[in-house]
Amino acid sequence: MLRSLLGGLAAAAVLALAPAHAAAPQIKTQAPGWYRMVLGDFEITALSDGTTNLPMDQLLHGRPQETRKRFDHARLPLPVESSFNGYLINTGSKLVLVDTGAAGNFGPTLGKLLANLRAAGYQPEQVDEVYITHLHVDHVGGLVADGQRAFPNAVVRVDKADADYWLSTANMEKAPKDMKGFFQAAMASLKPYVDAGKFQPFEGPTDLVPGVKAVPLHGHTPGHNGFLVSSQGEQMLVWGDTMHAAAVQMPDPGVTILFDTDPKAAAPQRRKVMAEAARQGTWIAGAHLSFPGLGRLRPAGKGYEWQPINYSSLTVAPAAAAPAGK
Ligand SMILES: [Zn+2]
């Protein structure tokens, strides 16, 4: 017995000393981009459309030196690898998708939302409603796949103010050359739904399906909206492009970005939303917050601290969300 045990140990020692035949090749791909959380009776699935590098020090308004210092503090090299996220809400009776990603309009590292929706266990045919925070191509591009409606059974809803602005040929003609593509992409993405009678703009704060409400957050674009999701006393605000660069705009919510149609409106809007969300302990789901872009805010200095969601395997019942500060 002892002899065979010793023999085994000796063999193991020889194996440990033997050189590896070949280095294992590195795989160099990421896991499928989806993350699930529970909100009251609802199931929320964050869906990654991918990431792309953005020269945030050039895109953010204000003092580039101060901006670079903030990124340095966050240990984020420039250009910053930035997330593009959509959110799937299963209320139990309706399947709602907020934002659809860029599809093929923004380079090869984006356009993965549809594949990640499938990887998360859903089919695009199951989606009942698609809500678009605003008609920028990285949110609306994924409405179309191979020239067809990517969500064939869904109604698409967007604030009328954004539809009026981005679907107007007169506005496109007036726009600077480098902005015309935004108009064209919005028009092309919505056309199949308009033709099928599946496009329904809304105006002002609107109850869309039970538990999901449109909240106007105009500024980033003329009809930019968030969607407030409520179930069993828990709340989540899917806030679209209220923020693009957390490392800078969390501590300093006054900083705006080149993509803001009306920066003067976008900054106070962001401050107001953040103050309210921090006070009420509302979950935030952010299109450009590092994937899965889910977390909460706590006041810190002149701005806020981002408290990202704690990883959950969902095999234990999640505790009720505690309001910040309690
Ligand atoms: Zn965006």
TrEMBL record:
Domain Metallo-beta-lactamase, residue spans: 83-288
Pfam families named among the record's database cross-references: Lactamase_B
Keyword hit for Thylakoid: no
Signal peptide: 1-22
CDD domains: OPHC2-like_MBL-fold
Transmembrane segments: none
Domain of life: Bacteria
Keyword field: Hydrolase, Metal-binding, Signal, Zinc
SMART domains assigned to the protein according to its UniProt record, in alphabetical order: Lactamase_B
Family membership noted in the UniProt record: Belongs to the metallo-beta-lactamase superfamily.
Protein name per its UniProtKB record: MBL fold metallo-hydrolase
Organism: Azohydromonas lata
Lineage, highest ranks first: Bacteria, Pseudomonadati, Pseudomonadota, Betaproteobacteria, Burkholderiales
